[in-house]
Structures are given as structure tokens and as C-alpha cells.
Design a protein that fits this description.
23% of the residues lie in helices and 41% in strands. By secondary structure, the chain is an alpha+beta fold. Helix 2 crosses helix 12 (265-284). It starts with a helix and ends with a strand.
Length: 547
């Protein structure tokens, strides 16, 4: 056991060192947040597998409330390059096409409600400025003579946060085409190209020079229209993301498929297209500062903040909490990391203009020290994955690994996980109590559901239940590998070493079901008859990394 423990430590120490650096990236954190706007396109490659079907579904995508919707009349354009031409950089080709088609100018036109006669107004900008305002901004504005006009005028600053997201659905396959048996649905690779409209002070001044006033003569109007037509509004490439999405179900003729509500292939394709958009944005939000929501803790016990559907908040979305502390060395106030919170399912519908009484959503803490009202919260999306490396001690045991995936943002239940596990053990057995076999190799693997409960800020209890299979191999077995199904139930206790590294301990019980099978089928013998006493409780210890 000691050698296994030393191996685990040797493998995990470099990972701990790497993960320990991520909080340091939060040294420079903007304390304010303004809504960005996004114009979304599906880039179609004519002739590719299922491209036409995806195009038909793209019009039905539900776009998030987190961003102002700047979509234009058409959501689809034909790819301006061929995948076969490896010399072409996709982002460059897309950028050139968007500029050629005047997409950036069309976005600015939408902001200013530009009409066919060249006239513009500020109605949409004022509306969005008001909608963007927080309770704090509203209360502060009411203390001035200008009142709401301050908030309305702020809308002009939102134009510079205009983005363009181009989605490319590649390698679209049905489960049948992918030769995945007993499953129905679709899978695809989705590339997301993010661009930003470069609307700086220079561009804004040039646009205002083209502003048509009621008193302008026809000659002046025509001159301004020509000047506006010649106006160039550039865009810049920001980043690219790639996600792998799947929308599938077990078929009706499987045991699981009989108890799950079935969907048509058409419905599953719509889900796939929706997931391509949702997941691309989720991953883009990990690294784009302007997409990360910032707010403050409004109250504690329970933790509440004035964000919700308006900010695209979903169950188990992760936020880091920071306290501003004075640094005597630099003579400045700096944010210090204080903890991690996640959204519960109690998410408020706050899609309204602030009037000083905005409702709050509820959160729960998963790491860190005691949090206080007023601490800065910063959105910090994660992949929702957790990797456990450890050792199980018991009649069933050995080197053990498990990976958990957080399901909260998909199903709306906080701290709900699906997991997959596996273990390897080499052990001597007196088979049937008759013949001794040295060095039998046991391998087990399974999957299940787990639910986390925070006992304290840094201590989590996670009960679980799952189903798996164990196999036994030995060179002297006459009829090949022996195998059997097992049920496993137990609970793990996790202590935070850092917000994303935990020391783990747990206990689980293996119950083997059915008879042992070999290459010839059912042996007619129970697993613990073939391998005497192989069942029961196993204790586990290890270390877990969350990402």
C-alpha cells in the first residue's frame, strides 16, 4: 500500500503546483460589469453532411438573455473558404468576409436605429443603458439632477462591447452514421470564432459627423449620407473555441430506453444545434473578461447576489469572491481571493430595469474563508470535471480512479454529478476453495450518480450509487476472462486543500449480482463462490483535482 501511496503523491504534486497558480491570475480584476451584445451567425459549408438540416434548425435557437441580441435579418452565410484549402486561415477569411458584407456597419446601424433616409436616433441606446444599470447605479443617478438621463447616456459606452460570433458545425453525424449501436441522435464538432466591432472614439466622432438633423438642407443630407457610406468600421478577431457536442438517447429496444421519454431524431438535432451555441458561449466566457459577470455579495446566510436570468445565471455556475485590501507597499487597494460560491437552483428572473429593489439569487459556498457582504464576485466558469486518483483497501480494492462531471447547469439540481470509475487489483485466490492461483488480475469499471452536501465551507460529503462490471484474468484460466456485474453504494468525504484540490476519503460497498460468466457463458457460480469472500466494504483514500 505504501508504494501505491508514494506513486499517487509523485504523480499529483506537479498537478497541485500547476493548479495553485490559477488564483494569481485574478490580481487585476475589473470591479464593474456591463452587458455585451452579440451578433450570431451559422457559417454553412454547402454540400457537407447535414449542413442544410442544421441551417433549418438555426433559426429556432434560443439566444441567452445575458447579451443584448444584435442579430441581423439573416443568421446564415456561406463559408468564404474551402476546408480543403489548408493555406487559408479561417479567422482571416471570415473577418474579410464580414467586412466586405458590411456586418460591422449593420450592427452599428442597429444600435442607432438608422433608417433608409439616413436618419438615426438614440432610443435603443437609451433603453439598453437603462436596462444595463444596476441598483447601485440607479440609486446613485437619482441623487443627481440628471437622474435617469445619466443611465440612458451610458448606453453609448455599450456599443464598444459589440461582438460577432460565427459558429461552424463540422463532422455532423447521426449515431447510426457514427456506428454507435443502441443509440439515437447526433454528434458534431463546433468551432466558434469570436470577433469584436472596433467602435472607438475615432469611429464614433466620424459617425456623429454623419448625423442628420431635421434642419439640414437636402444638400447637407446627401453629403452626410455619402460620408456615412464611405465610413469604415473595422472588426478584430478575439479568439476561437472548439466544443464537442452530442444530443442522443438510448434506443427504444434497450432497457434504459424503455424508461426514458423518447425524442425524435428531428428534436435531437435541434438540441444539438442549441448545444453548439450554448457550449461555445460557455467556453468563451472562461477567458473573455468582458463576458465575465461581476457583482457584489448582497447578503450572507444564505449568500445572495443581485444577479439572475438577466446575467444568464444557471445552477452551479461558479463565482470567485474577492475582498479589496489596502497594500501599503504599492499604496493601492488590491483584490484578495476569499472563496468560491456556486449558484443554487433559486435563480431569480431579474430581466427588468433597475429601480433600487432588484431581487436576488441564492448561492452556496464550496471553498474559502468566511465571506462578507460587499465582497466582489467574479464569474469563473469551469469545465465541471473532477479527477480522483487514489487507492481502495478491502477484499475488493487496489489502485482506483474516478472522474465526476457536474450536471447542475444542465438539469437544475445543485451538486449533482455523474461519475465513471475504474480500479485495478492483483491478488492471490484459492478458487472454489480448491486450487490456488497467484497473481489474478482484477479490473473493475462502472458509472453512477452522486450528490454533494457541503458540511462546512471546506468539507463536502458526497453519497453515490452506481453499477459496474468486474473482470478477472489469469493465464491459467481455461475458459478465458471471468466477469460479473456489481452494484456499489457509498459516500466520499472531501477536505479542501485549495479551492480546486481536495484530500479524499471514503467508504463503499461492492455487491456482486448474477453469476460469474466466462467465454462460454454463465458458469452457474456466484462471484464470491469462485473467489471466496470477494465482496463487501472497501475504504478509499486519495486526492482529487477539479477543473
Amino acid at each position: 500500500m505504501k508504494k501505491y501511496f508514494l506513486l499517487i503523491v509523485a504523480l499529483t504534486l506537479p498537478v497541485i503546483a500547476m493548479l495553485a497558480q490559477d488564483i494569481e491570475k485574478g490580481k487585476k480584476i475589473p470591479s464593474t460589469y456591463d452587458r455585451s451584445s452579440i451578433t450570431v451567425f451559422y457559417m454553412k459549408f454547402p454540400g457537407e453532411n447535414h449542413a442544410t438540416e442544421v441551417e433549418a434548425k438555426f433559426d429556432k435557437v434560443t439566444f441567452t438573455d445575458k447579451y443584448y441580441n444584435n442579430n441581423l435579418n439573416s443568421l446564415v452565410f456561406q463559408a468564404p473558404f474551402s476546408r480543403a484549402d489548408l493555406s487559408v486561415k479561417a479567422e482571416k477569411a471570415i473577418e474579410a468576409y464580414l467586412l466586405q458584407q458590411g456586418v460591422s456597419k449593420a450592427i452599428v446601424n442597429k444600435w442607432y436605429n438608422r433608417k433608409d433616409d439616413g436618419s438615426m436616433d438614440l432610443d435603443l441606446i437609451f433603453d439598453r443603458g437603462m436596462f444595463n444599470a444596476t441598483d447601485a447605479a440607479y440609486i446613485k443617478a437619482q441623487a443627481t439632477k440628471l437622474g435617469d438621463n445619466i443611465l440612458k447616456d451610458y448606453g453609448n459606452r455599450l456599443i464598444e462591447k459589440s461582438y460577432i460570433l460565427v459558429l461552424d458545425y463540422q463532422n455532423i453525424q447521426s449515431m447510426k452514421e457514427a456506428k454507435i449501436e443502441k443509440m439515437k441522435g447526433w454528434k458534431a464538432t463546433v468551432h466558434g470564432y469570436l470577433f469584436k466591432v472596433k467602435y472607438d472614439e475615432e469611429v464614433q466622432n466620424a459617425l456623429y459627423d454623419c448625423w442628420i438633423y431635421p434642419e439640414d438642407s437636402p444638400e447637407v443630407r446627401n453629403e452626410k449620407i455619402k460620408k456615412y457610406e464611405a465610413l469604415q468600421i473595422p472588426i478584430t478577431f478575439v479568439t476561437k473555441t472548439t466544443v464537442y457536442v452530442q444530443a442522443s438517447l438510448p434506443t427504444e429496444d434497450t432497457q434504459l430506453g424503455k424508461i426514458i421519454k423518447q425524442k425524435t431524431e428531428d428534436q435531437l438535432l435541434q438540441e444539438l444545434v442549441q448545444k453548439g451555441y450554448d457550449e461555445s458561449l460557455y467556453y468563451l466566457e472562461m477567458n473573455n473578461e468582458e463576458f465575465m459577470v461581476k457583482t457584489t455579495i448582497h447578503q450572507v446566510r444564505p449568500i445572495r447576489a443581485k444577479i439572475g436570468m438577466k446575467e444568464g445565471l444557471k445552477c452551479d455556475h461558479r463565482y470567485f469572491a474577492y475582498e479589496y485590501v489596502y497594500n501599503e507597499t504599492t499604496n493601492s487597494v488590491e483584490p484578495r481571493f476569499r472563496g468560491v460560491i456556486r449558484a443554487t437552483s433559486k435563480i431569480v428572473d431579474n430581466r427588468q430595469v433597475a429601480r433600487g429593489d432588484m431581487p436576488t439569487s441564492q448561492f452556496y459556498q464550496t471553498a474559502g474563508s468566511k465571506l462578507r457582504e460587499g465582497y466582489l464576485l467574479r464569474q469563473q466558469n469551469d469545465l465541471g470535471g473532477e479527477l480522483l486518483v487514489g487507492y481502495e483497501a478491502g477484499e475488493v480494492g487496489g489502485v482506483y480512479g474516478r472522474i465526476d462531471f457536474r450536471m447542475g447547469r444542465y438539469v437544475g439540481i445543485r451538486a449533482l454529478f455523474v461519475y465513471g470509475e475504474g480500479g485495478i487489483q492483483v491478488k492471490d485466490y484459492n478458487l472454489y476453495g480448491i486450487s490456488t492461483y497467484n497473481g489474478i488480475a482484477f479490473m473493475h469499471y462502472g458509472a453512477g450518480l452522486a450528490k454533494g452536501f457541503m458540511l462546512t465551507r471546506n468539507l463536502e460529503l458526497r453519497p453515490y450509487v452506481g453499477l459496474g462490471q468486474e473482470q478477472a484474468n489469469h493465464s491459467d484460466f481455461d475458459n478465458g476472462t471471468l466477469k460479473v456485474l456489481y452494484l456499489k453504494a457509498g459516500a466520499n468525504l472531501a477536505l479542501n486543500l485549495k479551492h480546486n484540490v481536495q484530500l479524499m476519503g471514503g467508504i463503499g460497498s461492492y455487491s456482486f449480482i448474477g453469476n460469474a460468466e466466462n467465454d462460454n457463458g454463465d458458469t452457474g457460480d456466484k462471484w464470491d463462490e469462485v473467489f471466496p469472500d470477494r465482496k463487501g466494504t472497501a475504504t478509499m483514500f486519495g486526492i482529487k483535482f477539479m477543473f
